[in-house]
Amino acid sequence: MIVSENKKSRLHEFEDILKKAHNSIEKECKSNSYYFLNRTASQFESDVYDFLCQAAKKTVFENTIQLISGHKFPDIVVKELYGVEVKTTKQNHWKSTGNSVLETTRVENVSNIFIYFAKLSDPIGFKYKPYHECLYDIAVTHSPRYLIDMDIERNNTIFTKLEIEYDDLRALANPVKPFVDYYRKNTKPGEEPWWMEDSNNVLKPTIRIFSNLEKEEKKSLKVEAMALFPEIFGNDSTKYQRVAGWLASRYGIVDSSLRDRFTAGGRENLVIANNSYPEIPRIFVNLYNNIDQVINNIECRSIDDLRYYWNFEALSEMDNKIDVWISLVKNYVGEIYSDGVKFVINIIGDYLGKRKTNYINDEYDKYGL
After folding, report:
1. Measuring CA to CA, which residue among 44, 14, 41, 16 is closest to residue 28?
2. Whole-prediction pTM value?
C-alpha cells in the first residue's frame, strides 16, 4: 500500500500525477518491454510506486508517498482521499477479479479509488480509470468479489444493473443484499444464488446427500420446504424444481429422490375435530404432522424472504403471513386431493384455536367447519 500524508490536494491534482506516472510507464515500456513482460504482480506494484514518486516531485505529494506491505485495499492510497488499486494479467485481455463487495480491508476514509491495470503480455498495455467504472459483475469465492473489465462502458457497470451508485452501495449495512436481490430477479425458476446474505446460514465445505442427513435435519428441511414452496402441494411435474435449487444453493444438499421425501408412505385416514378425511395423500399427512412447525417457520420469516419464495411481490408488513400462505396453497391443493382446501383450513384452524384470523373464520364458515 502507498500512502500520501497530504489531505488538502484536490482530486484533479492527484489525477495529474497519476497521468504523468502512466505516461512515464508507457515511455519506459517502449524502450524496455522485456522488463515489464517479466514482472510479477507485486513487482509491478513497486514499479507503480516508483513512477508515482517520480511524478509527485515538485507537487504537494512529494515525499508523502509510502509503500506498505499487507493485504489492504487499495494498494496505493492518498490518505483519506484517493487511492490506486494495481492489477496485472499475463493474458491477452483487460479483465481481472477485483476486491470483496464487503470491502472489509478498505483503508478508512479513502473515497476516490482508481484501477491501474497492466496487461503484461504481448502486446503490453496499460490502462487506468475510476474503480467503480470498470466493475461489470461479481464472482464468488469465499465471498462475493467484483469482476473488473477495463473496456466496459460507464453505463454497463454492475452498479447500472443494480440501479445504485457505488458509494451508496458500499455505505449499506449489508452491501451484498442488492446483489442477491438482483440475481434472484434474473434467474430462471428453480435457480438462486448459492451465496446468501444470511451469515447464519454458511454452506458446509462438502456437498451433502439428503439420505445421509440426521432424522431431525431431514424433518426440518421438509418443514421449511412446505412453508416456502406452496406449489409442492399441487400436481405439476416440475413442482420440486425450486425446492431442489433451494436445497443446493442454501444448504449444499442434493437429493435424487426428492419427490419421495414428501410423498412416500401411502395414503392415510385422518379425523380432525370430528371431520373425517379418508385416503389423504402423504404430503398432506406430512403437513398435518408438522403444522405447528410449518406455521412457526412462516411467522418467523422476513417479508423479503417470503416475497421471493412465494413469488408474491404484493406481500406487505400489514398482511397476515399465514392467511397469505393459505391463499397460495389453495391454488394447488385441489389438483391432487378434492378436499385439500378444506383439510388445510381445518388443520390450521384447529392448531390456532382462538388465534384464528377473520380470514380463517370465514373459510371455516364457507366449508361448514
Report:
1. 44
2. 0.62
